[in-house]
Fold:
Amino acid sequence: MKQRGFRVSFPLLAVGAAVLLSGCGATKQSALAPVGPVARAQLGMFWESLAIMTGIFVIVAAVFLYSLIRFRARKGDATLPKQVHGNTTLEIAWTIIPIILLVFLAIPTVHYAYAFGDTPPNAMKVDVVGHQFWWEFDYPGSQVTTANVVHIPVNTKVDFVLTSADVIHSFWVPRLGGKTDLIPGRVNHLWLESNQTGTFYGQCAQLCGAGHAYMKFSVVVQTQAAYAAWVQSMQHPKVSVTTPAQEAGMQLFSQDCATCHTIGGTTFNGKIGPNLTALMTRPTIAAGTLTNTPANLAKWLHDPPGVKPGALMPNLHLSQTQIQSLVAFLETLK
Amino acid sequence: MAAISERLAGVHHESRTYTGIWSWLATVDHKRIGIMYILSALFFMAFGGFEALVVRVQLWQPNNHVVSAETFNQLFTMHGVTMIFLVAMPILIGFINAIVPLQIGARDVAFPRMNALSLWLFVFGGLFLYSSFFFGSMPDAGWFNYVPLSGAKFSPGVGIDFYDIGLQISGIGTLMTAINFLVTILNMRAPGMRLLRMPLFTWSAMITMLLVLFAFPPITVNLILQMFDRLFGANFFNIAGGGNALLWQNLFWIFGHPEVYIVILPAFGIISEIVPVFAKKPLFGYESMAMALSVIAFLSFMVWTHHMFADGLGPVVNSIFAITSMLIAVPTGIKIFNWLATLWGGKIHFKTAMMYALSFIPLFVIGGVSGVMLAMAPADLQYNDSYFVVAHFHYVLFGGTLMGALAGLYYWFPKIWGRQLNETLGKINFWLVFIGFNVTFFPMHIVGLEGMPRRIATYSAGYGWTIWNQISTIGAFILLVGMLFLLYNLIITFARKPDAPADPWDGRSLEWATSSPAPEYNFAQTPLVRGRDPFWLEKREGSGQMQPAEPAGPIHMPSPSLAPIGIAFTLVLAGYGAVLHSAIIGGFFLLATFWQIGRALVAEDHGFHVTPHMGGEAQ
Structure:
């Protein structure tokens, strides 16, 4: 993988991490490959605590293995070892030393609990609504709504405002930072920032039903200019229906699909399912389950719950012709 | 060698006697109840293990379809519920039943008939949970069963009803066990068995039962609230009706965190028994070990929101609970260092029981240090609900609880069943389990850091997760082979005649001072305890036998009774009434349950007396 922009404090462990990450794709969704300040601070805490904990484990293991070898019972030796009941100095020492080590972990813990807990006042807001089993992203103030792919500008603190439409979900993009739950009846905040452009992957981390494993999304981090252009295009989507197949598809959409789906630039404004505005600009469909190709769109339309277990979009028992014309129409959404 | 050997000279029964299978169903003997707890736990372990294996097979490769996503959710839910409620707790309660009264020199527990009721409530509660399979819907919302996913709207099937009612039924039994053993340990110790002379296993049992007493009410409240939501349309957890999703989480984890200590403290106790016996040294720092148990128990009630760091509860809550969680490392560390110091300078005998006990130390340290890492709230946001957590709690619950329970099984097998397990098979069993365990669970740390959430039915290629999942699955099958060696060892050992000596390991505590297995009345004469490690003391500095604290004579015994199994049975049938939404079935069997309880309460039963015949080496 190209992105390896993380700093680690312990060279030896960094080598270890490089070995772990050397497999192809191992950094795709890895907390070990941070691209923003939150994930980087979390990885720093990981290495710090791992170093202290490895030290403790090595000491325990050394004393343990030495004892097993040195103090094993020899054949034919029936004498009793010296009967020792305790040693106050030792016992006080191994009570105090761990407390001192814990202080070193407690300081960054409290520091970052506040740093991550307090949302920066100037952060850009994105409303995230969790649904079984897809993600809704609303950009307050700019009239943009999208699903399963969220665009954010680089080097900008983004305040994700997390709510749920049904059960508890959890918003997790490991390379940007840790997760926070979307809890019905509550509004949670999670601020993240990326210092790199590119696409970063996330998925729901709290069991939310049959489709839990299929509730994925991606974060597209763009330069300020590219992000502004994307917002522009979302505000003025182009839908140019020209061929008969596309027209038949649009007709079919208005009958079968528009009660649930909205498409910007058309009159379709259903609110139950994902907003499909500029669908062709998204890399994946069905909440990250399939790559966005005409063949996969057809596969999805043929049997949604077959592709994504528990999907609330029913199998509409569309004919092959109907599917082809719907795909032709969807391909016009740019 | 120096056991009190005794035979029944004449048994005079004034109460009804039962033979064959009925003698087991009607028994109120803590040793038989312990045996049934342990065997039932092993039975349920086969189910929980099978579920885990299917999960591992499903995760062998990306986009696998061995089972559907719906089935997968049922499998890991039942795996968790089974291993926690039907394996870990009952196997430890089984050892507590079988051993604690012997260790304190008691004749039985304080409330023998209630003890039998606890057992049957657990057995029937577990079978009731599994019977959901035949009703077409098993629990599938995870073992912690978060609302609103587990509410009527999102889980309309009966699976969650089985969870709510099955856990209530078995939970009543566990609460009664807690009361029973607290009273037993506090009131029925032999003369001279002061609190600070009790074996550490008895100490751990006492502290564990205190935890049960305070931890089970919150989960019971949760289960009852959800039962009202689901059966009668209440709104405790219904968000649209003003309910609160976090109420469930708070009540669940106020129970749930002490629960993990409920299943680890007895394992600590087992290790503290075995290490001194096979190192031929007294336990190092006895008082600090007992104190550490108490401090862990106390702290365990103030760390629950570390399961909820991702809930957005704010920096104040997260900081406080992070620090209290870290503090638990201090008393836990004390225990580890004391065990190491016990080994230091000893003469270590590598019996299978000792090998299991020894393996506990490094495995629990790994689980413990990853626990400290998880306690760092802001870093936990990465680990939470990922496979890193799955790795952590398996190192604690398998590397800790189960290794401890298997150590206890090999160690106390002769005392409980009068036979010793085969040592060669035992060592093969140990090494396969030890290796299989690490191969299965260590890679989960890595795949969790690489972003794999727990509880996903499948994953895509290209995340770097496949190789780690495949290693884990291979490890799971090594574990399976290891456990089959245990099964084989159990079968051939049960096929042999009982021939174990009273004191096969040169034991230190009182259970080794009576025959293997112990007679119905435990001790012909209540022993006089003259110090810590009382039996060791008499062997090294006394006559080699316990001094009696009372004259020989007839021993009063509680009568066997079918009331406990009857009460538990009708209560479970009432549970089916609730699941089936039938007020008639539910009401009828609930009345039948109360009628039986009333009858058992008013019936006069004076028990009976047995006269032990003092054998050759009389005291």
Notes: Residues 1-13, 615-619 of chain B have pLDDT under 50 and may be disordered.
